[in-house]
Amino acid sequence: MLTDIEIAQSVQPRPIAEIAAKLGLTEADLIPYGHDKAKVEPGAYRDKPRKGKLILVTAINPTPAGEGKTTTSVGLADALSRLGKKTCLALREPSLGPVFGVKGGAAGGGYAQVIPMEDINLHFTGDFHAIGAANNLLAAMLDNHIQQGNALDIDGKNITWKRCVDMNDRQLRNVIDGLGGRMQGVPREDGFDITVASEVMAVFCLCSDLSDLKHRLGRMVVAYTRSGEPVTAHDLKAEGAMAALLKDALKPNLVQTLEGTPAFIHGGPFANIAHGCNSVIATDAALKLGDYVVTEAGFGADLGAEKFLDIKCRMAGLVPDAVVVVATVRALKHHGGAARGDLNKEDLAALERGLPNLLRHVDNIKNTYHLPCVVALNAFLTDTSAELKLVEDKCRELGVNVALSEVWAKGGAGGEALAREVIRLCDEPRPEEFTYAYPEGTSIIYKLNAIVGRVYGGAGVELTAAAEKQAQKLIELGFGDLPVCMAKTQYSFSDDPALLGAPEGFKVTVRSLKVSAGAGFIVALTGDIMTMPGLPKVPAAESIDVTPDGRITGLF
Q1: What is the mean pLDDT of residues 398-418?
Q2: pTM here?
Q3: Distance between alpha carbon 555 and the CA centroid of its chain, in Å?
Q4: Cα–Cα distance for residue pair 142/7, rounded to 1 Å
Q5: What is residue 531's DSSP assignment?
Q6: N or C: which end of the chain has fewer CB within 10 A?
């Protein structure tokens, strides 16, 4: 059986101008990066109206058994194309950290992939390097300001801005820099975030154009003065140079699926420590150029979909026309307590115990956000007819259909049943208006409790003493009305990664609150979530190699 990378390398990509033409773009609208990828000039779509139907793909809480959210997104887009719909994908760019760590790449799998998968999973068009450079330029200007006399009276013990690198490197979480004498800088405690957790990434993905980018960069809070006032990138006169580093990266990247469906892949904030969506610019371009747009939000619906809906949709004026919740029988049995080695065996009892995880996500989409929904059940050869029927029956009780997805093995042809149900949902009159999990103008505590209660199914939040002080300070500084971005484990509705299924009665402990003023939200850190991940005992990097003729192997 061929591996993902072998399947991807077996397909000859079509010239990117041919793919662009499917969206009505000409060669003059493109900035080619080789023959099979390009950036798109903003003038090609900027003044067009949004006409496309927006389909959000999300999932249950992830497990080691696998769910296949990106694979489903790609296969669904190909299936819509096969049914004659002018379709475009809008996905995130993968981070190098997970690619070389434990998760692997993020270009889909099997016969539902975006290509060139090696480029997409590695340096691609250099966007992440530009974001890292802009982040670290700001860090350098901040420390230089302190070195050169500290006219802003910055408190060296209250600097919130970190350097970043797009790699899982726990060694850099906490460092002391500026050592070596007066001319080598001012010694202080410092640290690194992974690039996809940088606020520059969040700003990049939420801005609407270059002017908005520069404005958002300028209002980012990087430190506080000794009197407790915020210091921004604008105070350091940094936003212009940062925008100069990002101006080309801001143009969305166009690639293709194995079947030639156009795909915008642009931006990539983590979903457990950031907001987990591709750029507003790419989604906007896709909606203006395509009739059906398939996008995804990271990890389970409690993280990715919640942030997509409560943050991205709120800021960008988006409303999904349909939502796909991806699950597998294997993963649901894992949520039901089945041992990993037994997931291939029929186990209706474990499946029934695990199904509440899926049902809570579905219920949230339907009854918290009031959006039409379908469950995509990724097919495995080991799934039995009794197991499939149990999932279908339980979802039908909520008024939601289940579509079997075979896109990993069959590409777009294996997703036509799912595509037909998505088309039906998009065309059906909406009985209820889309709503957020919490309204605007509510307090920080209200928003935190609304997310935990209405989305996670918990009993509310508890703030540490430090978080309570931070909440009060944020309110005093005028940030209290901003949406909340929860940084939480992806493996559970709760803040305990071992609490699987659909737990109830738990409380989520918020240990820290930090404003991302440029992005326009407050980050709530829970559990032991780190903004710089580490590599696993056996990193994926150990299996990645390159042949003498330059062919990359081992990516998945």
Answers
A1: 96
A2: 0.95
A3: 20
A4: 47
A5: S
A6: N
